[in-house]
Write a structure and sequence with these properties.
The chain has 7 helices and 4 strands. By secondary structure, it is α/β, with parallel strands linked by helices.
């Protein structure tokens, strides 16, 4: 069986190896390590906890892809800032259950809503967003 090749199949993809290689070449003379910022492709956004708290406190926050490694940690951190409601949207039912149990234990007063669905189904995302009336939306789904 031939290995699948995205480029040969006409499937869009991003080549992070090329970016890693360019970043490594920029630093090879002075520092052989590559920083995550080198891979970002833009200037990093720097936020402070007070700024985040001001944006989240008392708001309804919707996190798509909330059960992944980044999304679940972001949900934990957002919950600490006291949103009015935290809505987590993901397709992973088991991970959603485990994350919800953890958040309810850590933040017993948190108004937590969990929604199962796929971000590729626009009608489902629209339904969840309209039902949540989210003032803030945080996409964490890796595409």
């Amino acid at each position: 069986m031939k290995p699948f090749c995205a480029a040969g199949a006409g499937v869009p993809f991003k080549d992070s190896a090329r970016r890693v290689g360019a970043a490594a070449r920029r630093h090879e003379s002075s520092n052989p390590r590559v920083s995550p910022d080198d891979l970002l492709g833009r200037e990093p956004v720097v936020s402070t906890p007070p700024e985040i708290a001001a944006a989240v406190a008392g708001e309804c926050v919707l996190v798509t892809g909330g059960c992944g490694s980044i999304g679940s940690e972001l949900c934990r951190q957002l919950a600490a800032f006291g949103p009015r409601r935290l809505v987590i949207f993901d397709q992973a039912e088991s991970e959603m259950f485990m994350l919800a149990m953890d958040l309810r234990k850590r933040f017993p007063n948190l108004d937590l809503v969990t929604e199962i669905g796929d971000v590729f189904r626009a009608s489902r995302v629209r339904h969840v967003f309209n039902a949540a009336r989210g003032e803030r939306s945080v996409p964490c789904r890796g595409l």
